[in-house]
Amino acid sequence: MTVFRSNKQIYAQVIDDTTGKTLAAASSLKVIDGGPKKEIAAKVGETIAKNAQEAGVHAVVFDRNGYLYHGRVKELADAARRGGLKF
After folding, report:
1. Boundaries of every domain in the chain
2. Which of 5, 50, 61, 77 is the least buried, fewest Cβ under 10 Å from its Cβ?
3. pLDDT digits (tens, 9 = 90+) for 29-41
4. NCBIfam families in the record, alphabetically (predicted)?
5. Which residues neighbour 54 within 8 Å (Cβ) at sequence distance 6 or greater?
């Protein structure tokens, strides 16, 4: 699972490294209601966990993409763990 964070949005993808195909994706663009950025990141984490499990993925390697494991990135990861993903 890889994470991309911009100033306004956060994105997560579950990618099969052998084929280079995206198996599941979620982003804050799909979150309709606003709110604090950390809460939105948590919703994205829950969504990516649900989408990954629907695609048959239960364990991933977390790629924070060079971002510190803090704030929104940490919230997304914690929510994905609560959603059932193992990493």
Report:
1. 2-82
2. 61
3. 987 678 899 999 9
4. L18_bact (TIGR00060)
5. 24
